[in-house]
């Protein structure tokens, strides 16, 4: 007799089969002849999508650059030589050298600053995404599962935060700090950015909690913790992952915008937004000081958006 307390995937539910949910979610590729789960089907589909492969390769490269910037340039991004390198034009023949992207008004290597600026942007994007996914996902899951007064209370709190303009609210919060490092910026953006994840998770949990396998698990005496984390969460997390992946790029843009406005990282920190702000005075005569940091920002955001689109199409059977 099959164990009806386990969570079925979409393929198993359609066939009337109830497999072990822990193994179905954990295994990316199932054994031959074994029914595939939603995650197995999604991974099998992703590996065939050029959009996913290109975006994943770009993101992997950006992560390596953020972790080991010294491996890509030996130039000091803070060192300026006004005598020899004042607004020097790019030398595109010297690949990965200090003068590849040219120099800015202070004689600093634009390429070195673009490479080292990757770390702060990626750190903020990943940090905010992790925090909003954990907190927003938990709030949405509790509101959707328990319903009633808890749903009303948590939903009203979400509405209050959702009504605050994201960037304006972040500017107000960050303006209260005299020194703004990565942790402060991550906390400010996460403080205001968790509402969308909470709403998506709430809707997914409301749909999932009425499934037959959840009703059967509850009837067999499974406690709330087991139902939430073994049965509901694995089947409701897919849309949250899609939203979080796409939102990661928007958090990187938000950090750059705040740094551009002077409310992000300080002057000593390396940030694409700060470099874009410094380059505005030379945009006509020396566009290279703006093009390269802006290009790095656009490429990073595009990579995460492409990844999110590929994951969304893989997890939604209607889009395959």
Structure in words:
The structure is a single chain. The chain has two domains: 1-48, no CATH class; 118-319, MetI-like fold (Orthogonal Bundle), CATH 1.10.3720. Helices cover 66% and strands 0% of the residues. The two termini are 34 Å apart. The longest helix is centred in the middle third of the chain and has 37 residues, at 110-146. It is an all-alpha fold and 320 residues long. Helix 6 (110-146) packs across helix 13, helix 6 (110-146) packs parallel to helix 15 and helix 10 packs antiparallel against helix 13 (238-260).
Per-chain topology:
Elements: H1 10-15, H2 21-26, H3 38-46, H4 50-67, H5 82-85, H6 110-146, H7 148-162, H8 166-175, H9 182-193, H10 195-208, H11 212-219, H12 224-236, H13 238-260, H14 272-279, H15 288-315
Helix pairs in contact: 3-15, 4-6, 4-15, 6-7, 6-9, 6-10, 6-13, 6-15, 7-10, 8-9, 10-12, 10-13, 11-12, 13-14, 13-15, 14-15
Radius of gyration: 24 Å
Count of discrete domains: 2
Order of helices and strands: HHHHHHHHHHHHHHH
| Shape type | elongated
The name of the CATH superfamily of the largest domain reads MetI-like
Give the count of helical stretches.
15
Question: What oligomerization state is this entry in?
Answer: single chain
Q: Which regions have little confidence, pLDDT < 50, spanning 5+ residues?
A: 1-33
- What is the percent of helical residues? 55-70%
What is the fold-level CATH name, i.e. the topology of the largest domain?
A: MetI-like fold
The end-to-end distance, rounded to whole angstroms, is 34 Å
How does CATH name the architecture of the largest domain?
Answer: Orthogonal Bundle
β-sheet strand percentage: under 5%
Indicate the mean pLDDT.
84
- The CATH first-level class of the largest domain comes to Mainly Alpha
């Amino acid at each position: 007799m099959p164990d009806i307390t386990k969570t079925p995937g979409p393929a198993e539910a359609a066939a009337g089969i109830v497999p072990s949910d822990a193994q179905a979610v954990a295994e990316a590729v199932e054994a031959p002849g074994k029914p595939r789960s939603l995650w197995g089907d999604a991974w099998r589909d992703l590996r065939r999508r050029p959009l996913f492969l290109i975006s994943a390769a770009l993101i992997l490269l950006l992560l390596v650059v953020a972790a080991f910037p010294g491996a890509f340039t030996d130039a000091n991004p803070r060192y300026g030589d006004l005598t020899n390198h004042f607004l020097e034009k790019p030398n595109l023949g010297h690949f990965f050298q200090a003068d590849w992207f040219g120099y800015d008004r202070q004689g600093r290597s634009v390429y070195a600053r673009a490479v080292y600026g990757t770390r702060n942007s990626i750190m903020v994007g990943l940090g905010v995404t992790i925090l909003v996914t954990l907190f927003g996902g938990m709030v949405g899951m509790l509101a959707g599962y328990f319903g009633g007064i808890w749903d009303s209370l948590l939903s009203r709190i979400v509405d209050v935060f959702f009504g605050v303009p994201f960037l304006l609210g972040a500017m107000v919060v960050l303006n209260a700090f005299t020194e703004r490092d990565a942790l402060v910026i991550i906390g400010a953006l996460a403080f205001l950015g968790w509402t969308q994840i909470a709403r998506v998770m709430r809707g997914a949990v409301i749909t999932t909690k009425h499934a037959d396998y959840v009703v059967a698990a509850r009837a067999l005496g499974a406690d709330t913790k087991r139902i939430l984390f073994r049965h509901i969460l694995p089947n409701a997390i897919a849309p949250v992952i899609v939203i979080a992946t796409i939102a990661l790029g928007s958090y990187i843009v938000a950090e750059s915008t705040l740094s551009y406005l002077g409310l992000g990282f300080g002057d000593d920190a390396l940030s694409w937004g700060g470099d874009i702000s410094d380059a505005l005075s030379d945009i006509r005569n020396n566009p290279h000081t703006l093009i390269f940091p802006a290009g790095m920002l656009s490429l990073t955001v595009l990579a995460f958006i492409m990844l999110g689109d590929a994951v969304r199409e893989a997890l939604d059977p209607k889009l395959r």
